[in-house]
Amino acid sequence: MTPGDSPAVIFDQVSKSFGAKQVLNNVSWNIPAGSALCILGRSGTGKSVTLKLIIALLKPDQGKIWIDEDEVTHLSASKLSRVRRKIGYLFQDAALFDSLTLYENLALPLQRLTNKSLEEIDFVIDQVLGQVGLANDKAKMPSELSGGMRKRAGLARALMLEPKILLADEPSSGLDRITASEIDELLLRQKADRKTTLIVVTHDVHGARRVADRVLVLDRGKMIAHGSVSEIEHSENETARRLIGSDG
Q: What global pTM score does this model have?
């Protein structure tokens, strides 16, 4: 299986409901390690819920979810913590602490979850901020960052622990096309340089067509298409074709 030898994430007949509303209904898919999956669908079709299930912020009502060799739905807290170390999460709102500088935001997971020295932490932060184009901004507060800079800062935070899998929830939301393209480039560079598996929830069809090796289309709780951009363009499902065919 390319580009990785085995799937980084597997959904096996996963269902999830909130009260009477079924958000995911018997959904199965997998993504090879080191490749990029973009999840498309109309609002309320389970895209962000899928990310939260992967990182086990939510548990499915039925089905299994595999991260590498671990089936995460029934793991103990300690084992789940170990699996989560493999995963970075770029939240839609960047999820920065407003009372901390950018440097302090990035240092936090390294201080709490590693034994790195202060010098090692400084080195990692400088390296990652350089990668995302914020090398001169580590003393700034989140309120001093533009929308695009906040996205870059959120990406930097998600990369602090060198994750094997990067989850991104609407990384281009609220950004102009040029800035959104810059975020796409950062994601693609992370995939190319670090062999990171990308799973990206997006409404940005232009970005999805650039980033994705595979596209997963959800509609009304069901997976209606899964494949390459070209395969989705020629899908028998009209909704899937429309979603990948325009920026609408």
A: 0.91
